[in-house]
Design brief:
Strands 1, 2, 4, 5, 6, 7, 8 and 10 form an eight-stranded mixed sheet that branches. This protein has a two-stranded antiparallel ribbon with strand order 3-9. With 207 residues, it is mainly β. Helices cover 2% and strands 40% of the residues. The two termini are 23 Å apart.
């Protein structure tokens, strides 16, 4: 079983949690944190804290100039999660300032009958070979089943103090039935929001 998530873009409008005053009650001025031409100003939906999002993030993986070959690296066969980054792109400050590639894992248990291990070796920039797309590259997150464990991947945003977020992702999930891909926000088991895409679903499913 193998699953790949092919990320083209991720768009996020964010309001931080620092104080209730972080939510702008008036239209914020255009500047480094707001891009009305490409995003627009989004309103939060909470009736008690009605206001505009304060920050804008746009992550574009469609035309990355990377030092790697752009070909998927070999599957991760070791269960320690100690693999190095697949290319120099993941060492650049522009990536490390916003994202962290995860390397934690889960041992076998009643809820997890197969050991799971995240690895940097499953996160890479890949050439886009679809003629219909103008993009030359995409960011791939991969999982594959090995004989004794499931080799997996996850990236986590570095900004934590969020009160509201509006997130849009353009990506494709492909692979054998039996896997799940997800985009989620998480504080604890009672404060989590996620979108899950199962590989057993039709390839035409849009979420």
């Amino acid at each position: 079983m193998r699953l790949s998530i092919l990320f083209l873009t991720i768009l996020a409008a964010l309001t931080t949690l620092t104080t209730t005053q972080e939510i702008s009650r008036t239209l914020p001025p255009a500047g480094n944190n707001t891009h009305p031409g490409s995003c627009g100003y989004y309103l939060t939906s909470h009736p008690a804290n009605r206001g505009y999002f304060r920050h804008h993030r746009f992550y574009d993986f469609r035309n990355i100039v990377d030092d790697a070959s752009g070909v998927a690296p070999g599957e991760v066969t070791q269960d320690g999660g100690l693999e190095e980054a697949t290319s120099g792109f993941f060492w650049e400050e522009t990536w490390r300032r916003e994202w962290v590639v995860q390397s934690w894992g889960k041992k076998t248990s009643g809820k997890c009958p197969v050991k799971m291990q995240h690895s940097s070796g499953n996160v890479y920039i890949e050439h886009n070979d679809e003629a219909a797309e103008s993009a030359t590259t995409h960011l791939t997150l991969r999982t594959s089943r090995q004989s004794t464990f499931q080799s997996t991947s996850e990236i986590e945003g570095t900004q934590k103090n969020l009160l509201y977020a509006s997130i849009r992702m353009r990506a494709r999930v492909q692979g054998a039935s039996g896997a799940v891909a997800g985009l989620f926000t998480y504080l604890d088991d009672e404060n989590e929001g996620d979108i899950e895409i199962l590989t057993r679903e039709s390839e035409a499913t849009v979420k």
